[in-house]
Write a structure and sequence with these properties.
alpha+beta, six-stranded antiparallel beta sheet
């Protein structure tokens, strides 16, 4: 019976027990209550089985070794990462014991051990080692040390064994990389942008003249991939030593670098090969205007062109979650690939077969809700317009009624004034005629006349009486009679009619009578 698999399994279980971590299907998860649970998740969140000796190591003995150490050669085509983490206020010192045997090459181009001062693959390089001579002791400036072992597909060697210890940090320095690490785990979609970097952190980097080094660590489900679309990139300088954006796939080792942008590029789209993408934003404080904005979507590769029932087929080998369709975001890609935002109210093919069609009640409901909101908004606007028009009409009607009332009141006042003037005029006429009521008799008569004279006076009075509405009445030898309100009433005293006028009127009347009717010796 081969005891090597059993021994390997026993070793893994012992190491896992010592590290207080849970091992589930090839993944290493930190316990929520561990001391470093609030720290950035390192590159060792996904560990291949062949890397356990290196990536986990023996934390009790504070050591780790290359895969297959002491019993066999290390395997070909591996990339293993180990992050050594000390307590706060301490640094890490790494030493190599026993032997060191890695394939020798110029610049260690084939197999090598890479050590960096930090917890990412782009931290400051401490050394890159190969050959059969033990490397020198490496010491970090902070509480993290990043170690990476790589082998190509040919020629394997025995490997190495390393130990580390923790020392008190007597010259502590703040690193913006540790304070600006953003982990996004398990999200179906989202956005990342440089504006989310805190103002205090920017001010600290500027005041201390240190680089601003931030990262966004996007993690999807194990069988999913990440589609990253940069909608805006603004780089003030084209020098990568001043500002740049780096995108890593899987971990932050140099071999995992997919893209590096140091200038403006508005059409950068990246698809991951693993379930993890890391976006690094590097900026010197003097280049403060460099910014970026990107949108990500997690997806699953289509199998034979089909997707699951709970997924939408983007027809570009991408299967996105059904809830991402018709959300006003092009999750399938930029036009014309944004079919997830087209025909949102039509039935869609779902299920393993693209030929099956089922009405999308959720999309129809969302569309109905949008139409209901639009209808309510339009109805409310119309109601407001109608209310405003009614208020204006009522105000206009009230104004017209008020104007009519004022005009009526003014007319009534004018009539009352005319009546008072007429009454005052009549009173003055009565006083002027000795208190007698004006009548058809004269106010002041001539001496007694004969019967013939009285007949003439009667004829003249009848003629004058018929014409009383046109002019003032008068009789021979008398004064003006008051028949209606004449203009002379405006004077203080009644104006007597000139006698010549009375004589002319009498002569006119007598001219119409026969000559026989005129008595000789009459005054006429």
């Amino acid at each position: 019976m081969d005891i090597q698999p059993v021994a390997l399994l026993f070793q893994v279980l012992v190491v896992t027990a010592w590290t207080k971590d849970r091992l589930v299907v090839g993944k290493l998860y930190k316990e929520p209550n561990s001391a470093s649970a609030d720290e950035p998740i390192p590159d060792t969140d996904y560990i291949p089985m062949s890397c356990y000796n290196f990536s986990i190591g023996d934390k009790r003995m504070q050591s780790f070794s290359s895969p297959g150490w002491s019993n066999e050669l290390y395997p070909a085509k591996i990339d293993c990462v180990h992050i050594i983490e000390a307590e706060k206020g301490h640094i890490v010192q790494l030493d190599y014991r026993q032997s060191f045997n890695v394939e020798q090459a110029v610049d260690c181009a084939y197999d090598y051990l890479e050590v960096r001062d930090g917890y990412t693959g782009y931290s400051r390089l401490l050394g890159k080692y190969c050959g059969d001579s033990p490397p020198p002791v490496d010491t970090s400036t902070g509480r993290f040390m990043w170690v990476h072992f790589h082998s190509d597909d040919t020629i394997q060697y025995k490997g190495f064994h390393a130990v580390y210890k923790f020392l008190i940090n007597r010259h502590p320095k703040r690193s913006t990389a540790e304070d600006c690490w953003n982990v996004i785990d398990g999200e179906l979609e989202g956005e990342i942008e440089s504006k989310t970097v805190g103002r205090k952190l920017r001010e600290y980097a500027f005041n201390h003249s240190i680089v601003l080094d931030c990262a966004w660590d996007i993690r999807a489900k194990t069988d999913h991939r990440i589609h990253l679309d940069f909608t805006d990139i603004e780089m003030t300088s084209e020098n990568c030593q001043h500002n740049m954006i780096q995108i890593y796939d899987g971990n932050t080792s140099g071999r995992r670098l997919k893209n590096q942008e140091c200038s403006q590029s508005r059409k950068l789209v990246v698809k991951s090969e693993t379930n993890r993408l890391l976006v690094r934003f590097f900026l010197w404080p003097a280049i403060a205007n460099s910014t970026f904005k990107a949108r990500f979507t997690t997806y699953r590769n289509a199998i034979n062109g089909t997707c699951a029932e709970s997924e939408f087929n983007c027809e570009n080998n991408m299967c996105i979650d059904e809830s991402l369709r018709c959300n006003n975001k092009p999750n399938c890609g930029r036009p014309p690939m944004n079919i997830d935002e087209k025909s949102c109210n039509e039935p869609l093919p779902i299920g393993p077969s693209a030929e099956a069609t089922t009405p999308r009640s959720e999309t129809g409901l969302a569309g109905s809700q949008h139409m209901l909101i639009i209808g309510i908004a339009i109805g409310g606007l119309l109601l407001v317009v109608i209310i405003v028009i009614c208020i204006l009409c009522m105000q206009r009607r009230r104004a017209e009624q008020t104007l009519r009332a004022l005009e009526k009141k003014k007319l009534l006042g004018r009539k009352q004034g005319e009546m008072q003037d007429l009454m005052q005029c009549s009173s003055q006429d009565i006083e002027a005629h000795g208190g007698a009521t004006p009548s058809m008799s004269t106010v002041k008569s001539e001496p007694q006349m004969s019967t013939r004279d009285n007949s003439l006076d009667a004829v003249e009075r009848r003629s004058i009486y018929r014409d009383k509405k046109q002019r003032p009445m008068s009789v021979p030898g008398g004064r003006q009679l008051l028949t209606e309100r004449p203009p002379q009433c405006l004077d203080d005293k009644p104006q007597p009619l000139p006698r010549s006028s009375s004589l002319k009127s009498s002569e006119k009347l007598l001219s119409g009578l026969p000559s026989s009717d005129v008595r000789p010796g009459s005054r006429y």
